[in-house]
Sequence to fold (200 residues):
Amino acid sequence: MKASATKKERMKRRIITIAWRKFNENGFRKTTIEDICRDLAISKKTFYNYFPNKEALVTEIITELIGDYRSDVLESLAYKQSVEKVLEKYFDLVLEGFVKKISPRFVNDLKCFMDDQWERLDSANANVLQVLGEVILLGQKEGRVDNSLDPKEMGRTIHEFVLFSLGGFSTNRMTWAATLNLPTIKRILMHGYLREGKNI
Fold:
């Protein structure tokens, strides 16, 4: 029984992995169940043993994405170091992880055709914004961050720039350009927020 369960888990993982790749390449609107089955060399009947439809598969992928996003990003913000080091870790995690994981086609399809899943991502962002604001407030108390700025607004600005780089545009080329600029945006934001003489 265990071997059978493990085999099922492996097949489910394969379906999710291939579907995620195809959704990122083509968007989920243009990716059919037939496309996914062809790449996996399985029948549609086998696919339906795991997922009742394509939307259920997208929901499963978003659930995993949110789980990774929350745990990794919130862990980076809980990092017990100076505010500069915490923000560096946050930017690096987003740049190396999420920017390279999510294609603009997938993001645009999600925004346009699956409001419920987009709202779930939005809710995850609210958690991140709250903790980011707390990190910046701590930096102000330590005298490392400019006290004249509202920590919640600073956190929102930083996070919105990051989300902008994740796929606010509809073409790969434009998003790629935004991704290339994220390190520069990071330097501008951090130097603008950090107190004079305490820059990274």
